[in-house]
Write a structure and sequence with these properties.
about 45% helix; two-stranded antiparallel sheet; about 325 residues; TIM Barrel
Length: about 325
C-alpha cells in the first residue's frame, strides 16, 4: 500500500499491509529559514519513511506572525523563548490586524511548505501546522488571556474572531501551496487552563470557524490535543478524522480513546520515556504491546506530541522494524 492509502484505511478502520506511523520534531537553528527547514524535514522523511509528514515550523511562529519576538533556547523540545508579547491590555485584542499571508512569517512558512511539497513523494500526505485561535491568543498574551476571559470577555472575543479569520485564511493558503491537510494544534482545551463550559464559548466556537473554512477543501485534519486534564469528550466530537493527544502521559489511553472517537487515533508511544531513553529492544516491546492492545486497527503509531530532538535514531528504526 502507498502511504496515503494506509492513512485513509486507518481512518476508515480497514486493514492495512502494516500499521502506518509518523513522528515529528522541531529543528532549532534551522526552522526560521525556509530552505533549511524544508531540507531538514525532507532529510528526516528520507531517513525513516513516515506515512505522513507534519511540517513543524519554529516554536511560537504563529505569535511571531502577529508581532511577538522570540529567540532560540537550548531544550530537548527545540522550542523558543518569548522576549515580548503582543497583548498587554484588554483593548489590545481589538487592535489586532491580520498579518499578510504571502510575506512576513506566514510567507516564510508557505515558502518552506512549497519546498517540502516539491521534494516529497506525491503519495505521502503533507500537513501544515496551524494553531487554534485560543492557542494563539495564549501565546500573544502569556497568562493575561485568562483574566481577560473573566473580566473583559467581549474584548477577548473580538480578538479571537480576528485570530480565527486569519488562521482560516492561512490554512486555506497552505492548501493552495501544496499541503494535503492541516495539523490543527489545540493547546488550551484543558481544565488546568479553562473550564469546559468556558472552552465551548472561547475555544470551540473559534476552532470551528477554522475547521469549517477548510472542510470543503480537504478531508485530512489531524487534531493535536495538548496538555493534561483535557476536554477530550468535547474535542472528540469535532469534525476531524485523526486525533492525537498525550495518551501515555495524560490519558485517556489509546484503547480508551479508540472507543470514544470514531476516526483514527495517532499515538501509542511515550516520547519522553522509552522512545527517548529506552533500548531498541524495549522500544520494539512497547510497539508490540500497542499493536496487540489495538489489534492494529484505526491507529497511526506515533507519540503524544513532538519527539525530543535527541531521540536516538536507533529507537526510531526499532519502531519501524516492529511494524513489519
Amino acid at each position: 500500500m502507498r502511504a496515503m492509502e494506509r492513512i485513509e484505511a486507518a481512518i476508515a478502520g480497514r486493514r492495512t499491509d502494516r500499521v502506518p506511523w509518523a513522528f515529528w520534531r522541531h529543528v532549532p537553528g534551522r526552522d526560521t529559514d525556509p530552505r533549511r527547514l524544508a531540507a531538514a524535514t525532507l532529510a528526516f522523511q528520507r531517513r525513516f519513511g513516515f506515512d505522513l509528514v507534519k511540517l513543524t515550523p519554529a516554536g511560537g511562529y504563529a505569535a511571531e506572525a502577529w508581532g511577538a519576538r522570540l529567540v532560540p533556547r537550548r531544550n530537548p523540545e527545540g522550542t523558543r523563548e518569548y522576549l515580548s508579547r503582543v497583548v498587554a491590555r484588554p483593548e489590545d485584542w481589538r487592535r489586532l490586524k491580520a498579518p499578510p499571508l504571502d510575506t512576513g512569517v506566514f510567507g516564510r512558512e508557505l515558502r518552506a511548505l512549497r519546498l517540502v511539497r516539491r521534494g516529497l513523494a506525491r503519495d505521502v500526505p503533507l500537513l501544515q501546522t496551524v494553531f487554534s485561535p485560543l492557542s494563539v491568543a495564549r501565546s500573544l498574551s502569556a497568562d493575561l488571556w485568562r483574566a481577560h476571559l473573566v473580566h473583559c470577555p467581549a474584548d477577548l472575543e473580538a480578538g479571537l474572531a480576528t485570530l480565527a479569520r486569519a488562521s482560516a485564511a492561512f490554512a486555506r493558503r497552505c492548501l493552495d501551496a501544496g499541503a494535503d491537510g492541516i495539523f490543527f494544534a489545540v493547546q488550551t482545551a484543558t481544565a488546568d487552563l479553562v473550564p469546559d463550559a468556558a472552552y465551548r464559548r472561547f475555544g470551540e466556537r473559534y476552532d470551528r470557524i477554522v475547521l469549517d473554512a477548510i472542510r470543503e477543501r480537504t478531508p485530512l485534519v489531524l487534531l493535536h490535543l495538548h496538555g493534561f486534564r483535557t476536554h477530550f469528550d468535547r474535542i472528540r466530537r469535532y469534525p476531524v478524522p485523526i486525533l492525537n493527544w498525550h495518551d501515555r502521559r495524560a490519558g485517556p489511553s489509546l484503547v480508551a480513546g479508540l472507543r470514544r472517537f470514531r476516526g483514527a487515533c495517532c499515538g501509542g508511544l511515550d516520547a519522553w520515556g522509552v522512545l527517548r531513553s529506552g533500548t531498541p529492544s524495549e522500544v520494539r516491546r512497547d510497539v508490540g504491546g500497542v499493536l496487540q492492545a489495538t489489534n492494529g486497527r484505526r491507529i497511526i503509531l506515533g507519540a503524544g506530541c513532538v519527539i525530543p530532538v535527541d531521540t536516538p535514531e536507533a529507537n526510531l528504526d526499532a519502531v519501524r522494524g516492529a511494524l513489519g
